[in-house]
Amino acid sequence: MKKINYWLMAVALLAAPAVLTSCSNDDDKDKTPTYTATLDNLVTNENGYWIGGVDGPGTDMGYGTKSWYHTYTDGPLAFNLTYSESTTEWEGQTYTSSYWSGFALSSRTETGFNSLTPDQYNNVTGKAHSGNNFIVATLYGENIEVLLEEGLVIESLYYTNSSYTVNSIVNGDNYSGGPFTNEDWLTCTFVGHHADGTKTSVEVDLASNGKYVKEWKKVNLRPLGKIVALDFVMTGSRTGEYGLNTPAYICLDDIKVQMPYDEILK
Q: pTM above the 0.90 mark?
């Protein structure tokens, strides 16, 4: 009887649908489809960066300043970028300056910092984590938006320091003061916004204990849960009356998100 029972069991297992067999394998449980935003579907200019620009009449911000708001996408993520120009008159001359905030794109391979433009678009590794493009982020209210109303889980992303920030850390500058000491620090906090208005956060060090991040590093963002937007908050020891004096830049690449099945099937 034992032999017959084993034979019947073997026949039953062979006849069972494949999906049931795979469900019994712990390695296959909870496998969720993912998408990685590499930004390589986007194009930088001849100098290896993109910061938006003049597109239409713009928004009058007062005091001779106009801003243009740009959004670019990769998969289910939207990246916001603000480009602004200010015009002033002085002793019969007209002076125009421009600046940006949000998520600039870069494909530059230089690592040094000699002048603000174009070297503020360099990172310390001299390359993207993968492919050609990476993000240079400096935030004043902009964030990464999720294009799904219910939100999604951002599993991870890669980050490193910009050459502009590292120049301030290593050599000092007119705003931050002298070079960093062992007591100085610089931190980036990733803040996840949930559909119900609550927030969660994950924190990483960009510089501490006399060292600074000089390679691409991966941060696990699963603890943020399902979010509809991702903010970045920079804090550090070199802070004055008007906020952080160290350049509040961080470079990003390969943002991995969990994709719902129904979105993949569209």
A: no
